[in-house]
Amino acid sequence: MSGHSKWATIKRSKGVADAKRGQLFTKLGHEIVVAAREGGGDPEANYRLRLVLEKAKQANMPKENIERAIKRGTGELKGEAELAEVLYEGYGPNGTAVLVSTLSDNRNRTVSEVRRAFSRHGGNLGSDGCVAWMFERKGYISIDPGDNDPEEIMLLAIDAGADDVEVGDGIVEVYTKPTELKAVQEALSAAKYEISSASLSWMPQTRITLGEKETFQTMKLLEALEELEDVQEVFSNIDITDELVAKYEAEAA
């Protein structure tokens, strides 16, 4: 499953610019609304809300924004359009599979923007089910091992119920069944390991490798999709090497 953290690194580097434009807070606010709507406003009793609030805290989202989003989700704030979750599927310019997770109060606007991004970067929006079968729903946890032994983190995660663990340069990635994400995260937190992120993700069952030019074309599409305000996350089955990530970021700087 290698490659998830590499794309996550690019997304983190983009996060500062997103926050300046207010996009990041808007996206987090939408996530909070839906999580509170589905499971209530108490993060202790609502695990999905707790995951989103942790992301909001890491992004330094203002407290009043968080509280307003929770109230909107629980129905205490009225008069705003309902947010709907929609998963779009498509193909990158070189045949890569792409899933686009969105939250929107205007589905027509969202699908139009997503389709336009695909078209501008040589891809195309597909029909429901065209690529989703290539992915599976997984819990994902990334950990900064610091001075800790990555092998010990791996063993603890597996004992707690993880399906797979990958140890990379300065990162430990843990994959779980969706139902096991909470237990594994809590076990790692109890052991005082630094969790960088925890979420439910769509993981490709197999990945494809492209040449440098084709990889960069696909990465530009993924970035364009992520920059859309209604898009929460983008997933692809492209495999990205460390060398290409470094070169892509250097050219974009």
Key attributes of the depicted protein:
single chain, four-stranded antiparallel beta sheet, 9 helices, 47% helix, globular, disordered N terminus
Structure description:
With 253 residues, this protein is of the alpha+beta class. The chain contains nine helices and eight strands. Strand 1 and strand 2 form a beta hairpin. The radius of gyration is 18 Å and the shape is globular. The chain starts with a helix and ends with a helix.
Short structural description:
This protein is α+β, with helices and mostly antiparallel strands. It is built from nine helices and eight strands. It has helices at residues 4-20, 23-39, 47-58, 63-74, 107-120, 150-160, 181-190, 212-226, 242-252, and strands at 84-91, 97-104, 124-125, 135-144, 164-168, 171-176, 194-204, 231-236.
Question: What is the secondary structure topology, with strand pairs?
Answer:
Layout: H1 4-20, H2 23-39, H3 47-58, H4 63-74, E1 84-91, E2 97-104, H5 107-120, E3 124-125, E4 135-144, H6 150-160, E5 164-168, E6 171-176, H7 181-190, E7 194-204, H8 212-226, E8 231-236, H9 242-252
Antiparallel strand pairs: 1-2, 1-3, 2-8, 4-6, 4-7, 5-6
Helix pairs in contact: 2-3, 2-4, 6-7
Q: Can you give the mean pLDDT?
A: 87
Decide which structural class fits the backbone: alpha+beta
SS strand fraction? 15-25%
What is the spatial order of strands in the main beta sheet? 3-1-2-8
User: Treating each run of at least 4 consecutive H or I residues as one helix, how many helices?
Assistant: 9
Distance between the termini: 27 Å
Q: What helical percentage do the residues reach?
A: 40-55%
Q: How many extended strands?
A: 8
**Using only CA atoms, what is the Rg?**
18 Å
The shape, in one word, is globular
Largest sheet descriptor: 4 strands, antiparallel
The arrangement of helices and strands along the chain is HHHHEEHEEHEEHEHEH
User: Low-confidence parts, pLDDT < 50 over ≥5 residues?
Assistant: 1-10
